[in-house]
Amino acid sequence: MIDTSTNLTSLISSSSSSFSNGLPGNLLSRRLFFLRDIQVLELLVASFVFIAIHSLRQGKRHGLPIWPVLGMLPSLMAAVRTNTYEWITDVLCRQNGTFRFRGPWFSSLNCVVTADPRNVEHLLKTKFSNFPKGQFFHNTVHDLLGDGIFSADDEIWQRQRKAASIEFHSAKFRQLTTESLLELVHGRLLTVLENAVTNSLSIDLQDILLRLTFDNVCMIAFGVDPGCLSPGLPEIPFAKAFEDATEATVLRFISPTCIWKAMRYLDLGTEKKLKISIQGVDKFAEDVIDTRKKELSLQTDDCKKQKSDLLTVFMKLKDENGRPFSDKFLRDICVNFILAGRDTSSVALSWFFWLLDSHPTAEEKILGEICRIIRDRRDLDTKDKEPMVFRPEEIKKMDYLQAALSEALRLYPSVPVDHKEVVEDDKFPDGTELKKGTKVIYAMYAMGRMKEIWGEDCREFKPERWLRDGRFMSESAYKFTAFNGGPRLCLGKDFAYYQMKFVAASILYRYHVNVVKDHPVMPKLALTMYMKHGLKVNLLNRRKSELDKYF
Ligand code: HEM
């Protein structure tokens, strides 16, 4: 509209100049009337279109307009350009915690969205078997995740969960995780950070932490170190293939199923990219599985002694028919664990460091806690010897740090929304009717920002809310949903806390982490809550005199 009237104005002014160039007066007035008619006509058309659109709109639900064909999609699309999670939170707060999203009829976006802890407990625990991940999720992720723990339901999920759970709680596995983390933090992470300090370089802390946790989870799942955090921060083909494959898989969730299936059939666009990146992931897995099989058949000392990674453990197990698991199934198991543990802890740490930058009192308290723990070491003679390596029992004692990390996860949960599918007609405790096949989204991000759950100060970063008499107190998994709850509670929760505390304490003891001024920080729309532009920081060495005040 604006452009057209601008054109009309310029047409009038060009007519005036024609007049000065000698156009007869009556011709001019006829032309001006004609132009005025055009403007009136334009206004009429615009009004008609406006009225037509508004009469076509089928009304409002939950304060959101519903459009023919598109449903509530236009409101969602507008939110995608700003902050989708805040938009969902806003709608949920206005609707007492639950609303029904109507997407276009051709999409897979129709769903019930909830942030009500009663409903979340109902779907994650009370009626667990009525809310599986479902066929839609399974079909969408199957090319990448196959039948691994993340995408499987029922018996296939149960078997893996049981075996992995035993493994996760074994002493040998704990030793593997703590040793591999120690090696990565002291052998690589701190070297990379020290290099940045020496050369006064700003770094993307999120990228570095993502590299750290990728190497770490590959050591746990496959028993191999891909070397993403090596000096020079190289691009590792397997890591790149994995990242590309997850990004392309996520795109399937927002495309109509028939479209991505057609693109897959024709080998086009993102589907072509997905196919190539999955080949990269498969090649890596194949090589590792082959090598491990050879090692195990030779029963080399190295293999017998050291290997307690998931691949080796599952290779020694048998399926329900007493046969060893197929290579494909072993690949699926490892790929799923990598997906689960790859970037959840690193993005949580990124949000934590960002929050700490604007909460110096919380940082002081963490430092005080770390220094008190060091002071209490029985063998005080090691106190001043570098490097300061925190021991597992010391990490356990860091209650305030655990509270601060939980608070960061409450406000910025690594998995911001999650999804289930209804098997049989059901009803939520809040009265919402659920028809068979309905998709249900539970919004962890929104749950951390609801006054009904956390009180008036729900948007503030207050680690103290997690402490009673100075000790960390966990919350109900249906109120603090960052790690999921019920039978599908995150298997890596204890390890993730250990990993995050170890990394955070090792960094904070040595450096001030200052976020670069005006660096834009916002969530990226993905399965995991990455910072869209990473986290640019400058590191400064902590002076010894600064730490001395805590001893
Ligand atoms: C801050 C760190 C972490 C957070 C916030 C987190 C959160 C979650 C969430 C929300 C789920 C449920 C996902 C779903 O069912 O759709 C989950 C599942 C899982 N997580 Fe974590 N996770 C973290 C770290 C880890 C780590 C480090 C590992 C492994 C090394 C891990 C292993 C798993 C596994 C295996 C599952 C699947 C459980 C199942 O379906 O039975 N997680 N996690």
TrEMBL record:
<feature type="binding site" description="axial binding residue">
    <location>
        <position position="490"/>
    </location>
    <ligand>
        <name>heme</name>
    </ligand>
</feature>
<dbReference type="InterPro" id="IPR001128">
    <property type="entry name" value="Cyt_P450"/>
</dbReference>
<keyword id="KW-0812">Transmembrane</keyword>
<comment type="similarity">
    <text>Belongs to the cytochrome P450 family.</text>
</comment>
<keyword id="KW-0503">Monooxygenase</keyword>
<keyword id="KW-0472">Membrane</keyword>
<dbReference type="InterPro" id="IPR002401">
    <property type="entry name" value="Cyt_P450_E_grp-I"/>
</dbReference>
<dbReference type="InterPro" id="IPR036396">
    <property type="entry name" value="Cyt_P450_sf"/>
</dbReference>
<dbReference type="GO" id="GO:0016020">
    <property type="term" value="C:membrane"/>
</dbReference>
<dbReference type="GO" id="GO:0005506">
    <property type="term" value="F:iron ion binding"/>
</dbReference>
<keyword id="KW-0349">Heme</keyword>
<keyword id="KW-1133">Transmembrane helix</keyword>
<keyword id="KW-0408">Iron</keyword>
<keyword id="KW-0479">Metal-binding</keyword>
<protein>
    <recommendedName>
        <fullName>Cytochrome P450</fullName>
    </recommendedName>
</protein>
<keyword id="KW-0560">Oxidoreductase</keyword>
<dbReference type="InterPro" id="IPR017972">
    <property type="entry name" value="Cyt_P450_CS"/>
</dbReference>
<dbReference type="GO" id="GO:0006629">
    <property type="term" value="P:lipid metabolic process"/>
</dbReference>
<dbReference type="Pfam" id="PF00067">
    <property type="entry name" value="p450"/>
</dbReference>
<dbReference type="GO" id="GO:0004497">
    <property type="term" value="F:monooxygenase activity"/>
</dbReference>
<dbReference type="GO" id="GO:0016705">
    <property type="term" value="F:oxidoreductase activity, acting on paired donors, with incorporation or reduction of molecular oxygen"/>
</dbReference>
<dbReference type="GO" id="GO:0020037">
    <property type="term" value="F:heme binding"/>
</dbReference>
